[in-house]
Fold:
Amino acid sequence: MKTLLKVLLGPLLFLILMVIPIGGLDNTMRGAIGLLLWMLVWWIMQPVDPSVTALLPILISQLFGIANTSSVLATYFNATVVLLLSANIITLAWTKWGFDRRLALAIMMKVGNNPKRLVAMWFIFSVVLSSVVANAAVAAALFPIVLTTIKAVNIDDSQIKNSNYATCALLAVAWGSNVGFGTPLGGAMNLVVVNLIEEYTGQEFMYIDWIIRCVPLVIFVAVPMLLLLLTNKMEYDELPGTREALEAELKKMGPMNRGEILSAVLFIGAFALSLARPLFSNLFPTLTANYIFLLAALLCFVLPANEKEPVLKWGYTMPKIKWGVFLLIAGGTALGDIITDSGVGGMISQLLVPIAGQSALAAIIVFSIMGCFFSNIMTITGCAALVGPIIITTMSGLGYNPIPFLLLCYAACNISICLPSSGAGPAMVAGYGIDMNKMIRWGLKTIPMCLISVIVFGWILYLLWPGFAVI
Structure:
């Protein structure tokens, strides 16, 4: 009965908005708001898988005419999806041949047995790696290694809830993997922002421009998050046996095989070419990062890992691709487009103009709080697709360059650490037996400090660095 009520609440809210007239809102606007509420309810309560919820824009736009169905369908396999699919394929090659595990183990070997140092290392490594690999892939690769070290100190699955060390270690990966916006390759949510900037400017937004502006913002989010995570008391001063467990795992792997080398070279090569794109953009104007990575992904199925097989075979790859993630990307983008095209985004921006128009600082505060709030109850991708167009409409209407406000709001969107709906890391860690009340409590303690850091330092950056506001 409880599940049935969760299922019915979303469509009920949608139908109420469609049937009951609300002053000033036409049928399309009411439908867009109703769809937003329906998807939010299902994303938060999860009576169905979040990826299933992401399919709603297709059905609702077709049945109720609140958007052009062809335009909605186009978001379900666009250039953003091509890039993420390609990166997903290459990182699957990492997993198949063991490069991701070797990389993580080698770094952890240098850290030692101090629990706080290990937690800090897992967090930093997650932040860095999730800036170039999809957040879900980072969390999926690192959680098993973290669990290895947790079990090495005789903490089994049933004891994780009661262990502050285990909780800190797992949250280090869950939170760190969500702060993956140092480069556009950290996930689809980054590419949604890139697309918004390119649509606004009418020109390609080079990856190096993103890195120069967003790496400081990553620091503004990550530093207070890590410091507050480490303030939680742990039951160990030094972990017994952890280093030995890592040494045994690394020794068991043996020397790097050809599959590892090729999968590493393909990813590093594609990433390097994406960064160097300004050097050859005039010569190859259509070879954008999306298709550089697609080329590298296709080479995984061609280059031989040994005498018997290529780096990847489709039979191995197809069931392991995160198809649901692509639906979430597309569904979040489609929802944002529907909200914007219906005029609801413009209506919200009009409500915000009196506040945002008072000063640049007021605008930064308003949009940062909005982005952080929405990203903790829905996917970061959906949040970026929803809030981004509102920021562009509002700030450009006020005569500001909207891009710095968009980037600062997006930094706040990455402070999404409280709920399973906040991102892949928090969703996965919930499945590893962590105490959910503890995750929410620690998250609520951490969010305000991270948000203040983004607002204060972001505003200073905006004032003191003219280049931050110029693309």
User: Anything to note?
Assistant: Residues 79-320 form one domain.
